[in-house]
Amino acid sequence: MEKVKLAIIGTGLRGAYTYAPLIAKYKDKCEIVAFVENKKGRRDLFLEKYPVDKDMVFDNLNDFIAHDKLADAVIISHYDLLHYDTAQVLLVKGYDVLVETPVANSLDELVHLKEYSLKNKDRLFMVAYNNRYSSFYTKLKEIVDDKKLGDLINISYNVDIGYQNFVHNYVRGNWRITSDTATIMLTNSCQDIDMMINLSKGKCQKVSCFSDLRIFNWENFNTKMSENCFRCGEEELCPFSAKKIYLQEDKLINNSVHINPTKDNLEAILKQGPYGKCVFYCDNDVCDNLTSIFKFDNKVTSNFNINAFTKESDKKIRLFFKEGEVEASFKQKEIKIKSFLNTDEKIIKLDQENTDEKLFLDFIDRVKNKNYKSCISDVGSVIESHVATFAAEFANVSETVVDVKSFFDDAVEMTRQIEKMMF
Fold this sequence. Notes:
By secondary structure, this protein is an alpha/beta fold. Helix content is 36%, strand content 20%. A nine-stranded mixed sheet has the order 14-13-12-11-7-10-9-8-15. The chain has a six-stranded parallel sheet with strand order 3-2-1-4-5-6, sandwiched between helices. The longest helix has 19 residues, at 404-422.
């Protein structure tokens, strides 16, 4: 049985620590034949773990693109801003594509995404929406669909990022400046908004949104503190200290701080680099709390919240029906069903699962069998949630209630007018 040949674009946390181990696990089905990574240390480490021909190792994307087709499919897991353009070019080159979220970082990209997916029906263009493969969300959808609790009235969807993950990614890390990446609703929660829309069984009509960067800003820096955690007079009392987050436990995020995250290496780089900076002295501009309200065409309403100030990371969802309510925790894989007609509470415990693995295997099987129909996370099927996310951010900036259809129709028309003038 011939293996599916894969190229990985970007060997950061997702490329090197999610997809590469899965490729190695299923080496009877697939193999890495090429990869692109612009950082030498990451290239060398990846090559050490996953040997490929040195002629198939690229330090920039342009050299990879300039070659004739080198693999059956590519996994795009590099910078968010490049996802759309990279996918577009590689589809034309004849590759099947799996791209990390978000698939589009700007409205003009989003405008062209649907037409581009329709033009490439002879290719697999798949987005890494691993939540769609989760038994947790499948079970919640079943509860909504069977209507044993009556019609769905309201959804309360809370994204608890967790304070350590938030300061790592959005205060000190690569996603800390919105203009360099995208808004937090897109970079952190486009999949959550997708799940919320699917649970509602409606189309998003209107959205309002408010947010603030309340804590992680210079206003909370005082003279007892230091620019770096290793020189700070209040470090022992600070839960956001880099020493506490990176040096007390062996965590996956440590691999994004140093390619060889020993304690000595981490200490050395934290004293000099961005991950050791005081959280009140960074150049971040991403909100640390956000709340939004969505209205759907079937009269379902939803509040969607993102919060940095939680101990652990979780997605906590409450569904309110005519005759009962449901509470669910993604982290605990637990769903509680409370019917108004009886006093007993039904608790459903789901097994832990690797949704990345489920998505990956679906991708590999579809590439091998050239099965491009009814794909669970086809790019065309995720456009609605991206549009709703952009509309929510516009509502946030403008402090208005946004009509989602009009918002996107205006974006389409504006893009066409601009391109008409330019081209």
